[in-house]
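tokens incoming
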């Protein structure tokens, strides 16, 4: 299993949300260099079409500025330095807007596929890349073959596009030498911009093939084996035996807390052996008796033992014990349908306490409580 997992032969399961998040934290997301190139070229084309004529005129003015130096200025040692600084400032002002557009395209292009991501792990040096065997493996991998095919495809597409652009603008380019210099410069900027538009259109075809491949390739790298999915589930949810032990400890803690409440009960009603419920009635705090402990079998036995240790009255009433056990949760009031039956029991308990305290006569047998049909639970 380990060997198959290492070789990736049985990685047939889609990556889990945890695996995707971990890969993103490591910077492993789908990226397309062709999409980045397309964004830059498209913005360059639009920028040249929009700004090309104005850039051409201003560059022509810059040429005139540099070739129109006074004779007196030629004899000054400071002229060339000042002329250079002025030319640099004008040049940056001319090409600055286009460069700014290209900078935005270069930043936005990678975000178009995979989103914005800044990962320190991806910037950390990876010494395994220095392994010659790993390098050879990458050179002869499927991805390397795809990259080679992409490079050949790009070369052919760009070649065909260049030939098409040359044929399309051949007559216009041949007439540039007969145009006035300002018009020729402006016309050259337009031709260059249109050439980039056609080049960008050709790159759309390459990007349309590369983007699905990058998404598929990234998903293949993140696929998991069945064992990896099971191990991840165990790590995130906990091993079954550990979870079972935790639930057991929780039950034991809850039972200890419940047994600690039994001494506060007014009465314990039993089945007599299968069920036991402990009731507490506080007419000031609650309008109805509350179940503070209940249990079946061994737990019922423990409730009876604790009640006996603390001299809590224990009464046998199988129908009422079953009805309360199944209809009421811990720390909840009994349902209204059992008010009369429980009231009869509490009245009997009060009489029994009075008798034990020497303040009344011995009560007779406990009256049979009246249990509604919808609350009856047969054995």
């Amino acid at each position: 299993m380990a060997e198959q997992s290492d070789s990736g032969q049985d990685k047939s399961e889609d990556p889990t949300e945890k695996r995707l998040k971990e890969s993103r934290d490591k910077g492993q997301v789908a990226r397309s260099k062709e999409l980045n190139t397309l964004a830059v070229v498209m913005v360059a084309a639009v920028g040249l079409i929009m700004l090309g004529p104005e850039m051409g005129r201003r560059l022509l003015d810059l040429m005139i500025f540099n070739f129109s130096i006074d004779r007196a200025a030629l004899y000054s040692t400071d002229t060339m330095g000042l002329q250079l600084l002025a030319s640099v400032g004008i040049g940056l002002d001319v090409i600055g807007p286009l460069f700014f557009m290209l900078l935005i395209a270069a930043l936005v292009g990678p975000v178009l596929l995979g989103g914005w991501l800044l990962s320190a792990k991806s910037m950390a040096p990876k010494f395994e890349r220095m392994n010659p065997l790993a390098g050879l493996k990458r050179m002869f991998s499927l991805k390397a073959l795809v990259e080679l095919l992409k490079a050949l495809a790009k070369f052919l597409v760009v070649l065909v596009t260049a030939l098409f652009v040359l044929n399309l603008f051949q007559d216009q380019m041949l007439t540039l030498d007969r145009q006035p210099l300002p018009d020729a410069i402006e016309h050259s900027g337009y031709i260059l911009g249109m050439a980039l538009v056609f080049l960008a259109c050709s790159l759309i075809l390459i990007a349309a093939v590369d983007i699905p491949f990058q998404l598929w390739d990234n998903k293949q790298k993140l696929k998991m084996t069945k064992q990896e999915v099971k191990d991840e589930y165990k790590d995130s949810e906990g091993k079954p035996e550990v979870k079972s032990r935790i639930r057991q400890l929780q039950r034991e803690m809850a039972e200890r807390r419940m047994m600690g409440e039994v001494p506060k009960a007014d009465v314990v009603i039993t089945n007599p052996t299968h069920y036991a419920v402990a009731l507490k009635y506080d007419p000031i705090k609650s309008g109805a008796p509350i179940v503070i402990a209940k249990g079946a079998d061994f737990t019922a036995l423990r409730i009876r033992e604790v009640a006996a240790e603390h001299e809590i009255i224990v009464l046998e009433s199988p129908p009422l014990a079953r009805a309360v056990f199944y209809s009421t949760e811990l720390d909840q009031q009994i349902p209204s349908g059992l008010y009369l039956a429980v009231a009869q029991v509490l009245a009997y308990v009060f009489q029994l306490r009075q008798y034990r305290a020497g303040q009344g006569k011995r009560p007779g047998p406990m009256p049979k409580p009246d249990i509604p049909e919808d609350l009856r639970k047969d054995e």
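note: Confidence is low (pLDDT under 50) at residues 1-8.
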